[in-house]
Amino acid sequence: MFWQALIDDFMSRMQLHAIPVRIQLWNGHAVDLAPEPPVVIRVKSLKGLRHVARASLDSLGQAYVEGHIDLEGKLLDLIDVATQLACHSGQAERNDNAESSSHSRELDRSAIQYHYDVSNAFYAQWLDPQMVYSCAYFHTRDDTLEAAQRQKIDHILTKIRLQPGQTLLDIGCGWGALAIRAASHYGAKVLGVTLSENQYEFARERIQREGLADRCEVRLLDYRDVSGKFDRITSVGMFEHVGLANLETYFRCIDEHLEDGGVVMNHGITSTDPWSRSSPWGGGDFIDRYVFPHGELPHISLVLQTMSAAGLEAADVENLRHHYALTLQHWAARFEAAGDSIRTLAGEERYRIWRIYLAGCAHAFTHEWVALHQVLGIKRGGARPGYPLPLTRDYMYVH
């Protein structure tokens, strides 16, 4: 029987690795790769068995999303088992070459709307009350997610030395949390831009409700279509959508919009692969297929190179990889706790996609597949004399 040949071949390749999983077939046949495994993969069809037998994170994820397999066990254990199966499948760890999409305005708009315009109610199930969808900043591992997200925003606004009366452009402003705090607590005049209609409507309503319309505005606008100059620019969790080939254009756009002596903070996910290749074992393929179409992650060396080529000097670089692992662990736990509500809101398929996406990303940051870098930059040259930042980093940690 064909299924028997598949399972025999699978066992011959996997049985030496003691992976803590049981493979339970639709016909009652089961194999354990380790004694008393805490994880069970229930294979519901021959198609599902094909996905498992030639495992990658993409193939296993696809089989789960499409209902060909079911998963039992703790979520982070499931991700660890899937990674071990993919690692020992005999496939290459990463794709040989990084590829970059064209990233036209239309392509970027459709990708952003696919990801963010699920529904605000969906994101509200597992984000903090301020709807901050980016890496938090933990002073201790016991910090609540709410506190850590507020600390992240303050960390950024302190780093750029935002002063009352200064103008701030927030590229990819999300649901408006940073823009609103910059206006309400730091006295800045803020413009936020997003391509997500849901985020735009949410942020605009919140700005009106908090009486900040004279100091804070959000526009449904591509960053390439912004006009004017600003004292400060922030970009948080946005440049992942820019594309490797477009990084220098992106940073040149920032440079053009910075006043002389201006300061920019770019906060974004980076690849730990020196050649900016996608996440290993097919994880990047799954994300591109189901979650972030056309997303591309540069290595920090490429970020610094393209920033410099665009006229920006990197003044400070901080890796927050461990902070994002903690953030994603919070998100994944909240997602699990709200599973029934999320299924009702978004449907079974999207629930499955995001369930393994969040836990998989927590695994990726924990195991150094990806990182998160805050890069503080200043506009080189210009007519304004002096250096816009203090001599030491001490100012960043005074609260």
UniProtKB/TrEMBL annotation:
Source species, domain of life: Bacteria
Key words, A-Z: Lipid metabolism, Methyltransferase, S-adenosyl-L-methionine, Transferase
Domain DUF7884: residue ranges: 16-84
Active site annotation, chain numbering: 361
A molecular function GO annotation: methyltransferase activity
GO biological process: lipid biosynthetic process; methylation
Family: Belongs to the CFA/CMAS family.
Protein's UniProt name: Class I SAM-dependent methyltransferase
Taxonomic placement: Bacteria, Pseudomonadati, Pseudomonadota, Betaproteobacteria, Neisseriales
